Structures are given as C-alpha cells and as structure tokens.
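Pipeline run #58 for the internal structure catalog. This entry was flagged by the ingest filter as a single-chain record with no existing model, so it goes straight to prediction. Upstream metadata was stripped on purpose; only the residue string is passed forward. Reviewer on rotation: M.T. Logging verbosity set to normal.
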Amino acid sequence: MSLKTSYRFIAPFYDAFLERGIVADIRQRSLAALRKFARGRVLISGAGTGLDFSFLPPQHDYVALELTAAMQARSLDRARGLEMAWVRGDSMALPFADASFDHVLLHLILAVVPEPQRCLAEAARVLRPGGRILLLDKFLRRGERAWLRRMLSPLSSRLATRLDVVFEDVLENVPQLSVVSDQPVLARGWFRMIELKKKEI
C-alpha cells in the first residue's frame, strides 16, 4: 500500500489520535519558536489535517504542502486568521525554488516518508541560508536496540509511519544543516523536538 493510499483511508481517524492531549501540547511548544522570528515565509511540509495551524503565530505567510487530497480537505477550516496557501505535493520532491522559505516545519513527517534523507534534504534545499527547520518526530538513537520497534517498523511503515528512523543517520546526509537544539519530549526521549539551522554561505 502506498503512503498516499494509506493516508487517504487514515484521514477520517487521524485527528482523534493526535488532536488533543500531550501531542498537542508538544506541537504548541515546538511552534512557539516561530514567534521569535520576524515576518517570513514558512513551509509546512506534510501539513496533514492542519493540526499545527491553531498554534501558528499570525505574523508569517504560510504554505501548507500535503500529498493527499483527503488530508488537505480537512485542513481548510483550520487556517482562519492566517495567511495560508495550499499546495498538493510530495515532501520528498518539493515543487519550490531553492532558498524560497525562511523556515520549514517538519512535524510528524520525517518518520512517515519512505526516504527521510530525501525529505530533510529537500527541506534544506528550499530553506534560505540562516533559516530554521522545526522538527518534531519519533527517532531512535544510534546504537539503541529497541528490538520491538525495529521488528514492527516494516509493517507500520506500510500503514502509517516508520518506527526505526535514526535521526543522526538522516542528518549526516544533509551537511548544510546544524543542530540548534534537541529536546526529548515524550516516551522516554523517543519523540524529540529539534531545531535545525541552515549554514550561512
């Protein structure tokens, strides 16, 4: 089953799992970082049903990119009060020019896509030098056994998300990015809130 197909079926149930509670609190904490930046153009890569939208500060211009029409349709009513444009597209092959965004959001998308290195590299490509990537997702650490997550990942990746992504391995392939902060936020550090910066030319 392709990612596009699985999320078309998941869309009606997605919000019930992720809209409230601790995951919503973590989203809000991550997106608070946008408040410290002057007005800019922000890409929400893999916007899903728009669960981030209510936590976005209004001073920026946003572009919400989503692969599936079913998920995108559920996000439209959540953007009230925001300057928001919607684009259908793939986070691993972004339809934007180099250095066309001031910031990029990657919330619960890097562990979803089949090739997280391509997803992060594309985010870096469209990011201007000095811009930030705000990343929230679940990652294993190098050397972490996590045998159950690794065993279940081939199945879970066909349905919704990978469980075996090692962030350090992904970042190693995108050398133009550096880590500003990296905080464990849930499940004994499995979920991490990470801020990256694109190196100045």
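catalog note: The longest strand covers residues 127-138.
catalog note: The chain has a mean pLDDT of 84.
status: ready for reviewer M.T.
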